[in-house]
Amino acid sequence: MSLADTDNITLGNRNWREAATLVIVAHDPPVPQQEHRTYDYRLLLLQRSNRSRSFPGVSVFPGGVVDDADFSQNWLELFKHIGIQKEEDFGWDHMKGKPRAGPIAAPREEGLLPNDVAFRICAIRETFEESGVLLAGRPTEVMQSLFLRREKTFAPASVFSGFATEEVGVKWQQRVHKDASQFLVMCGQLGVVPNLWSLFELSNILTPSLSSRRFDTLFYICTLETVPKVIIDNKEMVGMQWLTPEEGIKKHCRQEMTLFMPQLTECARLCNFLKISEVQEYSARQMDQGMEPEMPVVITLKDCYIRVLSGDDCYPESVPIDKFVPIGSIDETVEENMKRCRNFNRFIRMPNGDFRLICNVKLPFGQQAPRCIDSRDWKNKSKL
User: Fold this and answer.
1) C-alpha span between 217 and 19 (Å, rounded)
2) Closest CA to 206 of 51, 363, 4
3) Quick count: other Cβ atoms within 10 Å of Cβ 56?
4) What is the 8-class DSSP label of residue 274?
5) 126-142 residue pLDDT tens
6) Percentage of the chain with pLDDT > 70?
7) What's the rounded Cα separation, in Å, for the pair 245 and 259?
């Protein structure tokens, strides 16, 4: 059971936009021995403006739509400072022939940067635009990350803090927000290189075809040794929080914030890792596995609706990703459906807002399954 073959789907007839999102995992400072702490890290979540065209009021990880400037060959002049002269030098050439995420596998015009490079530039640029966090470093520092990547070793990220003043950084943030090509200009003037090799692939979600606004989004993850200062733009983003994965889920269950299914799923996935070192080990194991895009399929039952992913017994044998797929229906209650099925990879939404996230299947390419969630158990603050 999988998505239909996409070899003949060109950029011109794709009815979605491509995007990159970055899950920033920051190490919490040590706490006194007598204090108990389940996780030693937090995730950055930004709250979108209610005026936003996309996902108004929702809390998201930093990220956005890829821009032509992210593919520009002009970046090569900057990357020459770390010894990169040709495409193979970036370090992802060995992934050819392996299953890849949708945006990475998509064909491009000749003369553009490789997809692995451009989408990481996009994720770093959008993160800077929305949060002021610049994941870039001096050439010697980034060369070390490139070396670690070639050795198949995890490379932690670091934040550039060398703006002359905070005001200068904010002005660059505004300029890049207005014109994505200014990101390269800024990096050149600062003498820094985006640290692409500190970003690791996490997942790839394609919006269901029944939506009028579709995105093929590649989720990356990186780790930081300290929690950086965040300066939101107060345009696209109007709030921010550093939360553990469980805190994010609990706040959503209590309607204190809103997470969409992809963000909720990534929080649930990270619930399996209590220490930042475990996140790093998982990311290192995954770096050469590859992945394939996932597209949820919506099905109505008698008393609720479900969003199923591949591996679920209710997922169709073949799903055309470039054509409208109407909402399916099964003449069963959720209880009847759960008794009939054995393999679950789904999100269940009840009319009263309660939901369940269930995954009992082994995911391909060594991907960690999200922790199962029943929102009714997470609403009571004393339970978790």
Assistant:
1) 5
2) 4
3) 11
4) -
5) 999 999 999 999 999 99
6) 94
7) 12
Q: Which of 371, 68, 111 is nearest to 249 (CA)?
A: 371
Q: What is the dihedral of CA 54, 55, 56, 57, to 10 degrees?
A: -150
Distance CA 109, CA 151 (A): 31
Q: How far apart are CA 61 and CA 23, in angstroms?
A: 6
Q: d(Cα 100, Cα 97) in Å, to the nearest integer? A: 8
Bridge-partner residues for 23, per DSSP? 221
Q: Give dist(CA 294, CA 16) in Å, integer.
A: 14
List the one residue out of 114, 119, 113, 106 whose CA is nearest residue 8.
106
- The β-bridge partners of 3 are 319
Which DSSP letter does residue 273 get? -
Sign of the CA dihedral with 107 first, then 111, 113, and 116 last:
positive
Which residues does 111 contact at the CB level (< 8 Å), separation at least 6? 73
What 3-state DSSP class applies to 121? helix
Residue pair 41/244 in contact by the 8 Å Cβ criterion? yes
Structure-token pair, residue 366: 């060594």
303-340 pLDDT per residue, tens = 999 999 999 999 998 888 777 777 889 999 999 999 99
pLDDT at 55 (0 to 100)? 82
| Angle ∠(54,57,60) on CA atoms, nearest 5 | 70
Q: Which two tokens stand for residue 331?
A: 């003449």
Cβ–Cβ under 8 Å, residues 60 and 45: yes
Beta bridge mates, 299: 306, 328
Rounded CA separation 81/359 (Å) = 45
CA-CA distance, 262 to 206, in Å (whole number)?
A: 10
Query: Would you state the structure tokens that stand for residue 131, as one six-digit string?
Result: 């949060």
Q: In angstroms, rounded to a whole number, what is the distance separating the alpha carbons of residues 252 and 11?
A: 35
Question: So what's the pLDDT on residue 12?
Answer: 46
Of the CA atoms within 13 Å of residue 168, those in its CB half-sphere come to 8
Please provide residue 376's backbone torsions phi and psi, each rounded to the nearest 5 degrees.
-65, -30
Give the N- to C-terminal CA distance of the chain in Å, as an integer.
Answer: 36
User: Would you mind telling me the total number of residues written for the chain in this entry?
Assistant: 384
Place of tokens 């470093």: 137
| Helix segments in the chain, DSSP class H | 75-79, 102-105, 115-131, 139-150, 166-178, 182-190, 245-253, 261-270, 276-286, 334-340, 375-378
Cα–Cα distance measured from residue 200 to residue 287, given in angstroms and rounded to the nearest whole number: 6
